[in-house]
Structures are given as structure tokens and as C-alpha cells.
User: What shape does this take?
Amino acid sequence: MKHACLPALAFCFLMGCTSSLANGQTAIEDFGCALATTDSEVLEQSRENGFASQQTDSDARDFASCLGHPDPFLRDKIGYEGLTAALRAGGVSEGTRRDLIAELSGNLSANDDDGILAPFSALGLSELARTDRVEPFLTAEERVEIAKTTAAYLAGVSDYRAFSDEEGWRHGVAHAADVAMQLALNPNIETSSLEGLKQAVTDQITTRSGYAFRHGEPERLARPIYFMATREAFEPEVWAAWFERLADPAPLSNWGDAFLSEVELARLHNLKAFARVLYINASLSENEALQPIADGALNMLKALP
Assistant: This one.
């Protein structure tokens, strides 16, 4: 799938959500997907045409219904890409968008042993949040609720499966970060909500899960931070204190002890990767609002072994 670069930064973050066609076969079970019984060749042709004839409220609902399907073609190429096309075409009503926001937000906390529904609901929610950024239609209270739901999901993601050849993408951390990015970009999202999203990024990047990120998660987590900074939502001293807390080895007495623990080594790896991404890209930017990010990330790197 194609993702447009955002000009506010000196680089383009790439969204790694593409997945391969699954056998070219029509699904036997629909798993709630309204398009599961449609011939795969018909679906692929529609996709090649940019879903030009499927941009109504009904189409948007049909695409969204496929976001939890185990077939990566139906889930990603049809469900997500189709929903994105319909939303970006501007023909989906406010009422339907509100309904989909409620539905996909609820999916973030649904029981899902396959680990598919929540990550792709988050990805769909990022596109829905984008529509409010481009042309505001939500109330202040609704924006607060989306930010709270997103922060809770982002902070709590513990399924770190990203991509497999057979099952395609999950990528919960990255997709949650995408929603946070859209919210951070939205000038109508209040600073209190941005604080909650910043804390969620903090919780995720410092988690002691024992999992070392290796599928671009630090890059995706960095994006909402950059855009919060470009909005000058927080004073430089707030950013400085934030980076100092990130570099704190607690509960270890010092970072040297991390080399005796798999869990702490993974945490150290994730923090260093995050700090590098922040420093390199903020220091390359000509946007002065990003200077506190460049300074804080550099100090963080100096503090980490």
C-alpha cells in the first residue's frame, strides 16, 4: 500500500503495513468480513482501480468489517486499503465515521487470541482520526475519548508479533503509534490529551517485556513525539526532564547491570534505538521547535552505555 510522506519533517517515515496476496483464493469463512465471499480476482481488480467505485458509507462499513480477517489479502489489501481510499475520497458521512470510530475503538480491547483485530482496528482508526484533522467534525469530548482509548491501547500492547509470510502483518505497537501520530498532528487535540499520548509512548518504549524491537517500532513511536514538538505543545524544560527520565536505569542501580539480564538488555536496546531515531532526524530538521528533541535525545544517548 502507498503512504504519503509528511512534509513537516526532513524525512519520510514509512509505514510497513503491506502484505502478500494469500493464495488468490476466496475465503471459505467470512469471519464477519462482508467481502469474504467476493471473488478474489474481482477484489484485486477493484484494488487496482483504486476502489474508485466503492467509496460510499456502505462500502466503508464493508471494508472495516474485514479488518479482523485472518487472510492478509482481505484484511490489509482490501479492508485497510479500501477503507483508506473511501475515507480519503471524502464521501463517507460524519455519522458513519462516528460509528466506525466507536466500533474500531471497541475492538482495541476485544479478546482476540489471533492478535489481528486490534492492530488493524488501530490502523483503520488512524485513518478515521485523519479525517477529523483534515476537516474537523468531532467534538472536543470525542477527541478526548479517542486520545484516551489510543493511549490505553498503545501503552498496553504486549503482542509484539509483526510480520509473518503466512499471516501477514499484525504490528500492534506501530499501528497504535500511527493513531497517536494523527492525533498529535491535529491542532484541535488539547495538550492534556497529548500528555496522555506521550506517557503511552513512554510506557511502551520503557516496558520490561524482554522483547527487542526489530520491525521499525522505534521509528513509528518517534513520530507522535516529533509532531508534538513541532506544535510546541511542551516547553523545552519539559522535554529535557522527559529524556532524563527515559535514561534512568531504575529499577537497576546502573545501566551496567543490564548486561546481566535479557529483559534489561532488550529495554536498553529499545531505548537506544528510540533515542537514535529522535536525534538523527531532529538534528537534521531545520525546524527550531525540534531542537529540544535533538538536545534531549543526544543527552540520552550519552547517558546510555
Remarks:
- Residues 126 and 179 are 4 Å apart (CA to CA).
- The longest helix spans residues 262-284.
- The chain is about 55% helix and 0% strand.
- Residues 1-28 have pLDDT under 50 and may be disordered.
